[in-house]
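Extended Data, panel c. Modelled sequence:
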Amino acid sequence: MEPHRLLTLFLSEGRELLDRVDAELLVLERAPDSRAAIDAVFRAFHSLKGMSATVALTDTTTALHAGESVLETARTEGQLPARHVAALLSLVDAVRRALDAAEWGDVPPPALRIAASAIEALGVRAPEARGGSRARARSARVVTRATAVEGARWRVDVRIADDAAIPLARSTVVLRKLHALAPVLGVAPDDETRAEDAWDRRLTVWIGDDGSQRTLDATSIADAVRSAGEVAECHVTREVRGDVTAREPAATQTVRIPVERLDELLDVVGELVLARDRLQRHLRPTADDAGLQVLDEASKLIAQLRDAILRSRMVPLSQVFDRFPRHVRDTAQALGKEIDLVLEGRELEVDRSLLDELSDPLLHLLRNAIDHGLERPAERRAAGKPERGRLVVRAVRDGAMVAVTIADDGRGVDRAKVAAQARAHGVADAESLADDDRGLLQLLARPGLSTASTVTALSGRGVGVDAVQNRVQALGGRLELATATDTGTVITIRLPLSIAMLRTLLVRVADETYAVPLAHVHSTHLVETSPTAGSTSIAVAGERLRLVSLRAHLGLAARDDVSGHLVVIDCAGERVALQVDACLSQHEIVIKPLQRVRGSASKFSGGTILPDGVPSLILDINTLS
């Protein structure tokens, strides 16, 4: 494998391992004698050390080796002291910075050397390797048990050289070399055994066919193995089809694909959907039965392709949620607070591009909840609350939307204080706005407004809620707030599951067609009498709703000779009757981002191309509030 590709793979896998290490170290902070957590961190450090050595990150390898020694001692003694956990967390942060530096071709940061020195200052010496014969026997049992793998065509027996500095890393390179030739179907011994110092450096790999017409022979396989370096022996034998009962459970095979390639595929399938719609529009009126059948089959295949690509972009929210425990822990310690974090809905999947955009807003809201919402232990005791605050991050599916809620059991938002700050910023009706949650959110989202009495590294500059709201609205979502004094605050982000394709209702105003996200539409109505110009409310299905004219919203002249078409929309926690000239049809659109012009009105969240080739703008529902 080329060096830069190997480094890219290591950076991706390494960061995932570091996230896992964070989670396990936080477990050990609460339960120092958790054997499962100690073993998990040890294996991760051992793998990281081997991988960093493979890509020649010497300083990182040395630092990880120091951390590995601490963990090896913890495995022997059965616990990891709190000060060792703190030192390892600092080392993890330093390794992250080192990976960032390696990605940009920079030298390792000083923090790496400082963290390694702190580890060495603990005075921990790794215990001498013992139980070697038992470990070797275990390794032998694994090889004996996995004597055949279903579908394997070649068995490769390898012995890593005795003078190899890091045999686990060398075995990893061997596996990658073999995987480049054909699928790796089985490996013995397993990763955990190969991480043991007592491993006898023997490795057995079963590979299958590569699926091409290329002829694979023993010589080419052996050459690939030896090209990994530090290989003492390599024997390749043709494998007879194995017995399913004799093999280890097969691991799920995955392929890492750069996000940019998925973006390209989505762009292509989006254009394909538009081409399909135009083709149907032009051919369906004149096509015979055979032609209509072909059109329908092609349409179904394109829809399946679109859905498959969208599914391939879906990733679990755990990739963002799993970063929160460490962030909450560090922030709480800096503020002298004690917090229990609960994560729910980690398995919910969303579009990858949405996940990337969601991380920073959620971290902003978490920081606000910890800094402004949750009290210190003494204050909570005085209020009759448990000393430890409770912070819940919950994700749920809400139709075509995902709702991510951050709830705390803190002091709640001080409405009077927010109103006073807003009035100082020139908001005349600050008190009335602060009386209800929706108005309170508007005040909190004003740029520059902050209730913090002092400026700190965490707060006080009036940047936070406004940045979150702007980001969420740009993604076609909305922000909601509910708060009660001495009870807590709940803030919710609602976003579409995908920000690439969208189901919409097409409406017409003044000879222009606009797209309204269908997830916000509650119902449509044709009223006999059109609302008069200047009306602010209207009765719809027995309910009095606020009336918004889309003509007026867009700055167009009012007309009395248009039909009374109303679209009832869920907007920022209330239902609004949107008056349009006509409701046309429902349509699935491909979202095209808009370039924002400084000073322009941001009434639209994106654009699209309709089946007739005419461009259309997507209405930003949040601007109707």
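Confidence is low (pLDDT under 50) at residues 129-147, 241-252, 454-458. This feature is highlighted in the accompanying rendering.
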